[in-house]
Amino acid sequence: MIDFLRGQIAYIETEYIVLDVQGVGYRVFCPNPYVFPAKGQEMVTVFTHHHVRDDAQLLFGFPTKDEQRLFRKLIEVSGIGPRVALGILSGGNPDGVIAAIHNENIAFLTKLPGIGKKTAQRMILDLKDKLEGLGGATLFNPISADTAAEDTLAPGWPEAKEGLKALGYTDAELDRVWAKLKDQLHPDEAVDSLMKKALKMLYAG
């Protein structure tokens, strides 16, 4: 089992990074590859999950130990494989996912890629009591999972993201833009405003 790798980024693609570890390039699939520094800037540690299938061996990688642990919990749920778990983490901040599970927020969970109502219910049933110690201490405040969801995704962002995907942009491109955009928004930002601001960043590269 490969639990982590330490090296320099050789290059970044939309679904994975290639990490140069003493001259060996490891392809590591990530929820958002662009959270890692650009090519060759510094040494980075990538927490990994080594997934072995009959026809392939795949590495999935994360910037934090908590995200790695959450991924491993997700793939224990019936019907959630590594690719779906990766989509969950790309579609929602790990803290928001944990809070939504704890607070049984099915509406939030079903907005995540590949998650229908039955799978969301299964996630809650299987994981609600197994996530202690993951994420921030405020996640389990019972005020409302909607509050946690708004901290993760502005109310209009899921709709704006779907509109941008219809224009041909990928999840990875939009996640990269969201990471830059989310701290510049008003709480009541309209969908069309979100799309315009995101498009401006996308055009700028």
UniProtKB/TrEMBL annotation:
Protein localization: Cytoplasm
Region spans: Domain III: 159-205
SMART domains, per database record: HhH1 (SM00278)
Chain ranges of the Helix-hairpin-helix DNA-binding motif class domain: 72-91, 107-126
InterPro entries with a match to the protein in the record: DNA_helicase_Holl-junc_RuvA_I (IPR013849), Hlx-hairpin-Hlx_DNA-bd_motif (IPR003583), NA-bd_OB-fold (IPR012340), RuvA (IPR000085), RuvA_2-like (IPR010994), RuvA_C (IPR011114), RuvA_C_sf (IPR036267)
Assigned keywords, A-Z: ATP-binding, Cytoplasm, DNA damage, DNA recombination, DNA repair, DNA-binding, Helicase, Hydrolase, Nucleotide-binding
Molecular-function GO terms, alphabetical: helicase activity
Main location: cytoplasm
Cross-referenced Pfam families: HHH_5 (PF14520), RuvA_C (PF07499), RuvA_N (PF01330)
Keyword NADP: no
Recorded superkingdom: Bacteria
Family membership: Belongs to the RuvA family.
Domains: entry comment: Has three domains with a flexible linker between the domains II and III and assumes an 'L' shape. Domain III is highly mobile and contacts RuvB.
Subunit structure: Homotetramer. Forms an RuvA(8)-RuvB(12)-Holliday junction (HJ) complex. HJ DNA is sandwiched between 2 RuvA tetramers; dsDNA enters through RuvA and exits via RuvB. An RuvB hexamer assembles on each DNA strand where it exits the tetramer. Each RuvB hexamer is contacted by two RuvA subunits (via domain III) on 2 adjacent RuvB subunits; this complex drives branch migration. In the full resolvosome a probable DNA-RuvA(4)-RuvB(12)-RuvC(2) complex forms which resolves the HJ.
Function in brief: The RuvA-RuvB-RuvC complex processes Holliday junction (HJ) DNA during genetic recombination and DNA repair, while the RuvA-RuvB complex plays an important role in the rescue of blocked DNA replication forks via replication fork reversal (RFR). RuvA specifically binds to HJ cruciform DNA, conferring on it an open structure. The RuvB hexamer acts as an ATP-dependent pump, pulling dsDNA into and through the RuvAB complex. HJ branch migration allows RuvC to scan DNA until it finds its consensus sequence, where it cleaves and resolves the cruciform DNA.
Protein name: Holliday junction branch migration complex subunit RuvA
Organism: Paenibacillus aceti
The gene coding this protein: ruvA
